[in-house]
Write a structure and sequence with these properties.
The chain is of the alpha+beta class and 149 residues long. The chain is built from 7 helices and 3 strands.
């Protein structure tokens, strides 16, 4: 057996953790994040969080990202229309303890994850890209690409 064969055998013995290294997380992280997202959305729709700022806004929760150990959930939120973002985030942070308790009661997990609320900036990024696509330079380049085909 050569050194090269020995190296290949060693690589084969080492466990591969390709699921944990993916951008979206493991299947379990995605599933738990989705469960938490649904419960939070239900709480917001039903008005379970008794806070005038939260009740006065329509809040969307496009994504919840979980850490690998499922102990921290980053909740991405966006108030409808993008108004009063700071006040909504502050209100959610203020009610974090209640929300975490409700999540623990509604979602069957060994540990209730700590919640971290962040603004979802995907809409801003999409708008920025849309503006770039409408610039004359990009329109010219896109138009010239059609002529070459």
């Amino acid at each position: 057996m050569t050194n090269e064969d020995f190296g290949l055998q060693e690589m084969a013995r080492q466990p591969r953790h390709h699921r944990e290294s993916t951008a979206g997380g493991s299947q379990r992280q995605l599933r738990v994040g989705e469960l938490i997202r649904h419960e939070l959305a239900d709480m917001l729709v039903r008005g379970d969080i008794h806070d005038p700022v939260i009740q006065g806004h329509m809040i969307t929760i496009p994504e919840v990202r979980m850490t690998a150990d499922l102990r921290l959930a980053t909740v991405y939120v966006m108030p409808l229309g993008g108004r009063d973002e700071k006040q909504v985030l502050d209100a959610l942070e203020h009610n974090k303890r209640y929300v975490r308790g409700e999540i623990a009661r509604r979602v069957n997990l060994k540990f209730a994850p700590d919640l971290r609320f962040r603004l979802d900036e995907r809409f801003d990024e999409a708008e920025r890209i849309e503006k770039l696509l409408r610039t004359p330079v990009v329109r010219r380049d896109l138009g010239s690409g059609k002529d070459e085909e």
